[in-house]
Amino acid sequence: MSDVTLSVKGLRKVIGKREIIKTIDFELKKGEVFGFLGPNGAGKTTTIRMLVGLIAPTSGSIKICGYDVSKDFTKAMQNIGCIVENPELYPYLSGWENLQHFARMLPKMDEERITEVVNLVGLQERIHDRVKTYSLGMRQRLGIAQALLGKPQVLILDEPTNGLDPSGIREMRQFIRFLAEKEGMSVLVSSHLLSEIQLMCDRVAIIAKGKVIHTESVSALLSQQERLIWRLVPHQTGVNMLKELTDFVKEEGESVITFYDDSKVGEWNKKLIEAGVTVKEMNRKLPSLEDLFIEMTGGEAID
Amino acid sequence: MINLVQNEMIKLVRKKRLLVVTIIMAVLISMFTYAQFRESERVQERLGTTDWRTTLQQQIIDIQNRLSGSQISDEWRKQLEIRVSQQQYYLDHDINPAEPGAPTFVRGFIENSIQLLLPLMIMIVAADLVSSEHSTGTVKILLTRPVQRWKILLSKYLTLVLSVSFLLLMFGILSYVISGIVFGFKGWNAPVLTGFTVEAGELNTAGTHLIPQWQYILMEFGLAWFVSLVVGTLSFMLSVLIRSTAAGMGVMLACLISGTILSSMVSSWESAKYLFMINLRMSDYLQGMAPPIEGMSLGFSLSVLAIWAAAALVISFVSFTKKDVY
């Protein structure tokens, strides 16, 4: 078998007369973090629900480690762990009891594995408290612990940093990288923030209106899409020089925008300075998701 | 499967559902015991005797007085006439229908609660077995485990069967113990008449025979268990179909209450006998009370309820395994 852990082909979902998911195809490889990027309502969560068997697809196939979700549900589910939307657990049980509860639903259950995942997500101190006393970050971690119980090959996290504070977000990112790199899992992360995908994913699929419009490695996407904002004095001389150096130059009020090109930026800067132009500001900037969509869909609005 | 049922039982216990229902039962039983106690005191005062024959005689006279009044509907008249002939039969055969003691209280209490009180208690437990998973959102984790959906639902249903049995047991124990403190614990072997049949508004005593009270109570509990299970199954179905626990409870409550109202006024609407809520008063068949609609019998009610429960189960399983979860 290849190192593809999750493959989705021609996925469609029609509810009533509306086609919610038009065509979704993608593959997840072992040890990679895959981003699922799209605005709210693009069909991210619906797709994820189909991946984990909560919703039956109208057509198309989903294979997890070679097992078809609709035909071989039990085997497919043994290889997947997920959090769909918020990590919702039984508030009247303790964290430990929640884990025990879900462990009992797995073919093999032992207390050791529970201890292991608790240590992995760092919840040792509060694990015997009731879940209703947990903070959102702790619930998120417990949710991940629950998803990891069965040692899955594929982990699906729907908006994992939603509602976390900055340090929680950073921890979560490191943890997701750790799972992919050290544990060899494939992790699917959905988000509506490009900055977040950029920081933790290897590859990204951009989806809008129920379609995958672009799949690419994050580094490639960024090198194409990342911009550099300049503030130059005198302005006009600087703009003219930049126009000679690169194709895309856009003026926006006081500043000039070019693409960011890691290998050439230093050189441009040097040339500007040598020509007596003062570089007051150089700022790398990610395009907003909206800009990206407009570019990729050729000016179509997201809605 | 045992693991799954264990999960469900843990959740049910930790949600304190069983505890709450048990406490409600204890409180109600205490109230009824006290009411019963005051009632017997009052009767004693009025008649100045503790002899049950006098009491029974007095009751017969009371009913006959009511029968001679003109403001009485035909159905009600029939009911009362049957009751008089029944009591006359007890008197003639020198059998005390209300032998004092806890077992008699248990018997009377279950007769009175089989139609509304017990089903309500069961409903509290059954109505949120499935819908609570939806309202907490945990259904998403539950259904993405490597366990097929029908197994999850079956484990929940088995949990319901266990809880119904547990609650009926508690009901029996509580009513026996609490009333026993007041009335004494004796009377298990008191003779009770059963086998009355009602044919065309006439009491037929041909098949009557005496059985010890404990046997009679056991039969009643069997019927009560069956009725509770059917009501539980119906609430369970509503819990699958309607994701809000409150709405499910509301529908069930409306059915149960309409059942009590309907059974006193539907004798002319014959097809109503196929409604489940008309068939809940099964202990009446043992007592020999006239059924709300002509032609209903123990066997008839058992089959009607069984069909309702089976249909509810089929609907629950089909819906639960097929439905998309959002």
UniProtKB/TrEMBL annotation, chain A:
**InterPro entries of this UniProt entry?**
AAA+_ATPase (IPR003593), ABC_transporter-like_ATP-bd (IPR003439), ABC_transporter-like_CS (IPR017871), P-loop_NTPase (IPR027417)
Does Nucleotide-binding show up as a keyword for this record? Answer: yes
Q: Which domain of life is it from?
A: Bacteria
A Pfam family (short name) is ABC_tran
Q: Which residues form a coiled coil?
A: none
Every copy of the ABC transporter domain together lies at 6-234
Keyword check for Methyltransferase, yes or no: no
SMART domains to which the protein is assigned, alphabetical: AAA
Q: Which PROSITE patterns match?
A: ABC_TRANSPORTER_1, ABC_TRANSPORTER_2
Molecular function (GO) terms for this protein are:
ATP binding; ATP hydrolysis activity
Keywords of the record, alphabetical order, are: ATP-binding, Nucleotide-binding, Transport
Q: Which PANTHER family match?
A: ABC TRANSPORTER, ATP-BINDING PROTEIN (PTHR43335)
Family per UniProt? Belongs to the ABC transporter superfamily.
What's the name of the protein? ABC transporter ATP-binding protein
Q: Which organism is it from?
A: Domibacillus epiphyticus
Q: What is the lineage of its organism?
A: Bacteria, Bacillati, Bacillota, Bacilli, Bacillales
Automatic annotation (TrEMBL), chain B:
Q: Name one GO molecular function term.
A: ABC-type transporter activity
Q: Name one GO cellular component term.
A: plasma membrane
- Transmembrane stretches, start-end: 18-37, 152-178, 223-242, 249-269, 298-320
Record bears the keyword Transmembrane: yes
Keywords on record: Membrane, Transmembrane, Transmembrane helix
- From the Swiss-Prot or TrEMBL record, give the protein name: ABC transporter permease
rRNA-binding: present as a keyword of the record? Answer: no
